[in-house]
Amino acid sequence: MSEKLRVGLIGGTGMVGQRLAILLEDHPWFEVKVIAASRRSAGVTYEEAVKDRWKMAKAIPEALKTIVVKDGAEVEEISKEVDFVFCAVSLSKEKTKELEEAYAKHEVPVVSCNSANRMVKDVPMVIPEINGDHIEIIKSQRERLGTKKGFIAVKPNCSIQSYVPAISALREYNPKSILACTYQAISGAGKNFEDWPEMLDNVIPYIGGEEEKSENEPLKIWGQIKDGKIEDTSSPVITTQCIRVPVTDGHLAAVFVSFENKPSKEEIIKLWENFNIPEAVKNLPSAPKKFLHYFEEADRPQTKLDRNFENGMGISMGRLREDKVYDYKFVCLSHNTLRGAAGGAVLIAELLKAQGYL
Q1: Could you confirm whether 158 is annotated as catalytic?
Q2: Residues 57, 211, 319, 127, CA torsion sign
Q3: Which of 131, 92, 137, 135 has its CA nearest to residue 115?
Q4: Global pTM?
Q5: NCBIfam families under this entry (predicted)?
């Protein structure tokens, strides 16, 4: 690739924006040219804007330190300087939706880390290894928006990306009911222990809006494109509980599942271990070499030990056994700010580029 695409980070000062900045440093296809945030952060360099709230273990990329932060609402100006944007803003759902559509209508593709457009019927919500073909709906979305290049694509909620890949590998056996209890890291709230000390030695059994997303978004991911819309699948029935726990990164899920056609334990593990990443995805720069991994050890996966599997882009499972109420139960793990947020968004952008949408 002779020239890198010019990227804008809208919401670049928050935790997901910071993670995007790190992931895009030296990316072979993309180069950050614009960083935007709220009006109160605009007008100073990126280094100045985040110096007191930088949450990454790795230092601020040198190439980004002197970029002057823009007001993300200045859509027309920013649109002239970028080929596409990542959006990770902290606005209300209505304002986020309005902002993302404004960029799209200015012919700037948007890869969103936000929830505002996830359930819009012609917006692809993508885990590339599972439903990358959903990006075909962009043609219908462009017709609705009246654009030639502009569109919105979104990544799913971070809470589902531990268990949805594991279940996706088993769909030939028709899962009919799922109970998933997720134990979610504080970085999912954009926090660390320094600015959220009340999470130390504590568990909070409520995360606003999370259970609704966790129960509904998988049905769209497993849905089908029909008549210019993505139609949700009607099964399985999913119920969840989402709990905040005192760990930095990594969402662990305890999953219970019943099938119309019950597979054997050996068949399940074989499907997980032999999961084939689609050809369109496997050679993308951020794609994991191995998407799913099953641990035979009784005490794995563990959040601290295993969240960085495949550079945080792989999914780990363990403790598969039969259950007295459901057919099977198991645990699974994903890195919430890599696979679940910024890394997942970068992988979507890579797929869009490879398929000619960027």
Answers
A1: yes
A2: negative
A3: 92
A4: 0.97
A5: asd_EA (TIGR00978), PRK08664.1 (NF006416)
CA 89, 92, 96, 98 torsion: positive or negative?
A: negative
> Rounded distance, CA 355 to CA 358, Å?
8
87 is catalytic: no
Q: Which of 134, 242, 251, 332 is catalytic?
A: 251
* Domain made up of 159-335: CATH architecture: 2-Layer Sandwich (3.30)
Structure tokens at 250: 């990594």
> ∠ CA(16), CA(232), CA(269), 5° rounding?
75
33, burial (CB in 10 Å: exposed 0-12, middle 13-18, buried 19+): middle
Rounded alpha-carbon distances, angstroms, from residue 108 to 80, 140, 191:
9, 16, 30
Structure tokens of 125?
């919500």
The domains of the chain are located at 5-157+342-354, 159-335
The predicted-structure confidence for 28-62, as pLDDT tens digits, reads as follows 999 999 999 999 889 999 999 999 999 999 999 99
154: enclosing H helix or E strand = strand 152-154
Instruction: Fold for 5-157+342-354, please state it.
Output: Rossmann fold (3.40.50)
Q: In b/e form, how buried is each residue of 224-258, taking b as 16+ CB within 10 angstroms?
A: ebeeeebebeeebebebbbbbbebbbbbbbbbbbb
- The catalytic position among 113, 158, 242, 332 is 158
Instruction: Report the chain's C-alpha Rg in angstroms.
Output: 20
Confidence band of 1 (pLDDT split at 50, 70, 90) = very low
